[in-house]
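Hi all, posting the design record for the shared folder.

TITLE: backbone redesign
STEP: 1 of 1
STRUCTURE INPUT:
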């Protein structure tokens, strides 16, 4: 397991970017990983995890929660509106809010339950048609709309196009953060978290560098 390698590297990057130690949160992305590997990371004391599918997450996390305290789960994959209720039950943070229909559904769930997971808005910084996320030019008005529904907008999230320089996208997300006065920035994965931290990431989502390569699903 490479958890300590990754956490050490995050600390070093915080220092070299003149950021406060501990200001970057590590989300260990456990999608598709076998339970034994996740258990090792839990035993090492790590508690913050990311999953990209609601169904898959329901298959493993309720029982881990029975055995380990204070697990914080982030949904980092696209969410269908008809799974919003389930996602509200399981996740502490939902990072993939990206459209009005989903925001409305969150707002009515929040009202019903009296609370809501923290929310990040996914921004499609590369404007890729196949990718989820709201386009940058629509973000400001979308945030206003979400805030008018009293949704707790905690941050912005992006996944840069694989064939482009990630720093362009990280700096764009940072600019959008400042303009809209949101707290957090979820950006950076195994291959580019160094750059993301230099550009102001507060949350990095790291899978393969901790757990090893994912076994591809058939
Ligand atoms: C899988 C995934 C990650 C982690 O990717 P690695 O390259 O394994 O670190 C991060 N963010 C999202 C949205 C993902 O789906």
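Okay, here is what came back for every position:
SEQUENCE:
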């Amino acid at each position: 397991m490479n958890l300590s390698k990754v956490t050490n590297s995050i600390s070093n990057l915080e220092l070299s970017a003149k950021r406060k130690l501990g200001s970057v949160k590590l989300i260990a992305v456990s999608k598709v990983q076998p339970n034994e590997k996740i258990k090792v990371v839990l035993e090492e004391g790590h508690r913050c995890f990311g999953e990209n599918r609601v169904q898959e997450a329901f298959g493993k996390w309720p029982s881990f929660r029975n055995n380990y305290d204070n697990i914080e789960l982030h949904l980092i994959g696209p969410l269908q509106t008809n799974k919003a209720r389930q996602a509200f039950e399981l996740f502490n943070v939902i990072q993939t809010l990206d459209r009005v229909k989903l925001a409305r559904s969150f707002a009515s769930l929040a009202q019903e339950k009296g609370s809501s997971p923290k929310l990040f808005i996914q921004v499609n910084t590369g404007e890729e048609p196949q990718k989820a996320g709201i386009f940058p030019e629509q973000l400001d008005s979308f945030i206003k709309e979400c805030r008018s529904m009293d949704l707790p907008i905690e941050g912005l999230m992006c996944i840069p196009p694989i064939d482009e320089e990630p720093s362009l996208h990280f700096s764009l997300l940072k600019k959008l953060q400042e303009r809209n006065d949101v707290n957090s920035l979820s950006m950076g994965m195994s291959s580019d978290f160094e750059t993301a931290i230099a550009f102001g990431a507060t949350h990095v989502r790291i899978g393969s560098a901790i757990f090893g390569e994912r076994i591809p699903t058939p």
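COMMENT: The radius of gyration is 17 Å.
Let me know if anyone wants the other runs.
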